[in-house]
């Protein structure tokens, strides 16, 4: 009995040493078995961190920012630029309005604010004039890229006189316009121009001038803007391990399984296992050592 016990232990030691030598020789496979679980856990941690970051970008109450004064166009690459171009430039109340806008924003009329449009000598009907001036503005913008900050087309300027009721400064009761801006620019300044334009319209319609703008009785527009609210996402706190852990945790055991299976098949193909059993290897020792290693 003592002999059988010592033989069993001796076989465990020898076969264990044999498997250790095989593991050292196949160090790439052994390293893969050791690092695979660590890599999977690190990957899941990274995925969970990304998920937490992306799904926690809620902002239900964005901070509003006041609309500032309309700025002058800043040239880029020494190419001069125009702050505002507008049309038509042959209607008195439009020119009066844009001159007041220039003074209110400290721009130079005729340089920073430039009017365009059809010549008065052309006997266009209102629709023809609107189409011509709209094409003029768009053609100028296309042919002179990145040289115009904003453009305005006053649509009510093409309504025949006497149709719309007028107020102070000869302005119509309802001043309609189309505002063009560069949507790809970081700061298109369309909101600043809209606030400035509407405030100047109210000022002139109230029979006041830009010099009266600081008066408490003068109309003022105070506006702010904010990003759209982003509510708390329903899937916030999503658990990556609970959802996909089974897929990833399946990989490390499979890597070990394929390596062990390859070794077992190799021993059977080379008749190594048969030779060890012929020399007295206990079958239980064989499987115990493979289970341990």
H-E string: HHEEHEHEEHEHHHH
Structural class comes to alpha/beta
Q: What oligomeric state is this?
A: single chain
Question: Which strand order do you get reading across the main beta sheet?
Answer: 3-2-4-5
The percentage of residues in β strands lies in 5-15%
Rg value: 41 Å
Number of helices: 9
Tertiary shape? rod-shaped
Quote the distance from N terminus to C terminus: 27 Å
Rounded average pLDDT: 85
- What is the helical fraction, as a range of percent? 40-55%
List how many beta strands DSSP finds. Answer: 6
Largest sheet: 4 strands, mixed
Low-confidence sequence ranges = none
Task: Walk me through this protein's architecture.
With 293 residues, the chain is α/β, with parallel strands linked by helices. 50% of the residues lie in helices and 9% in strands. It is built from 9 helices and 6 strands, in the order ααββαβαββαβαααα. It has helices spanning 2-25, 27-55, 92-104, 126-143, 190-205, 240-249, 251-269, 272-278, 283-292, and strands at residues 65-66, 82-87, 113-115, 148-154, 177-181, 224-225. It has a 4-stranded mixed beta sheet, with helices on both faces. α1 crosses α2 (27-55), α1 crosses α9 and α2 (27-55) packs antiparallel against α7. The two termini are 27 Å apart.
